[in-house]
Design goal:
Order of helices and strands: EEEEEEEEEEEEEEEEEEEEEEE
CATH architecture: Distorted Sandwich
CATH class: Mainly Beta
Helix content: under 10%
Structural class: mainly beta
Strand order of the largest sheet: 9-10-11-12-23-20-19-14-17-16
Number of helices: 0
Number of strands: 23
Strand content: over 45%
Radius of gyration: 19 Å
Oligomer: single chain
């Protein structure tokens, strides 16, 4: 667990044998199990049962490369391997297009180098040249001195002979102070966005604000893609639960490809995508920051 002041971040280390998450979808490094500031919770377990190989058996700012098409999937025949950055090599199981919810077998989990202290953890993974692809990937989670901010810095270098054409995003499974998704949740973007959330009876966008307008029932969901203003080279938005007053301010130093908002009754997920186009030898470094804001204490009687 990382700690700085009142901020506590529970992290599960990657391990192909006993790791908390061993699924084929999300980057195994920096898996967050819980985030707390004092008595306030921002991330917690939201599923009733846990199976480590299920694609979405994750919490917190779980991250994924290539949600539409991982490296080498289209050229792999059924039974052959393709590459999922942050995991390793997976087996293509049929001729269908890639689907992020499919349980593709992990045929080679790439090893990790892990270093950590009380306030930071660094994870490094390398893919040696494999069918033209190769990379060096590093992720560092750091708690700021303010005891309120988590930074996640990524670096990806293309060491192969083929270009890396993919995207990356953080799913951000949030649940503020245990509150289920309903009209107390809203997202305010600092810059203009366009697009709609469906179904309209559950959420609506007005300007740069997305507001949940009705409680979600069991097994109900909402979803929408939002397009940021052109040429934005950074972003910031705030997720708020107006009932309890807790907020998460999310910001980044990169141009967002798009935003997505997805939610179930149990969890609320604003997502930020970055497009990655790396020719051989190129490297990209980007950082996302999470500031956790708690309501002021009640006055003493």
């Amino acid at each position: 667990m990382l700690e700085q002041g009142e901020l506590q971040v529970v992290i599960y280390p990657p391990d192909p044998g006993i790791g908390h998450y061993r699924g084929p979808r999300f980057d195994w490094s920096g898996m967050v199990g819980a985030i707390r500031v004092g008595a306030h919770t921002f991330v917690q377990t939201w599923q009733k049962e846990h199976d480590p190989v299920i694609p979405d058996a994750v919490n917190g700012p779980a991250e994924e490369f290539g949600i539409e098409t991982p490296l080498g999937y289209d050229s792999a025949a059924p039974g052959a391997a393709f590459i999922k950055i942050g995991v390793g090599e997976l087996r293509r199981i049929n001729r269908e297009p890639y689907f992020f919810g499919e349980v593709y077998p992990v045929v080679r989990a790439l090893p990790w180098r892990v270093h950590h202290d009380r306030t930071s953890a660094t994870f490094s993974q390398e893919l040696p040249l494999t069918r033209g692809y190769g990379y060096q990937y590093k992720k560092q989670l750091t708690l700021a001195l303010d005891g309120r901010t988590l930074s996640i810095q990524h670096s990806l270098k293309n060491t192969g002979t083929l270009p890396i054409l993919t995207n990356h995003y953080a799913h951000n499974f949030l649940r503020l102070d245990g509150q289920m998704t309903g009209p107390s949740y809203r997202v305010t973007f600092d810059s203009p966005v366009s697009g709609e959330i469906q179904p309209a009876r559950l959420a609506e966008r007005t300007g740069n604000v997305v507001q949940v307008v009705a409680p979600l029932l069991a097994r109900e969901s909402l979803f929408g893609n939002l397009t940021p203003e052109p040429s934005a080279n950074s972003f910031s938005f705030t997720v708020e639960n107006t009932q309890v007053g807790s907020k998460v301010r999310v910001s980044g130093d990169f141009e967002p490809e798009k935003f997505s908002i997805w939610a179930l009754r149990e969890v609320f997920c604003p997502e930020v995508f970055i497009k990655l186009q790396l020719p051989p030898g190129a490297e990209k470094i980007w950082t996302t920051r999470y500031e956790f804001i708690v309501p002021p204490p009640l006055p003493a009687e």
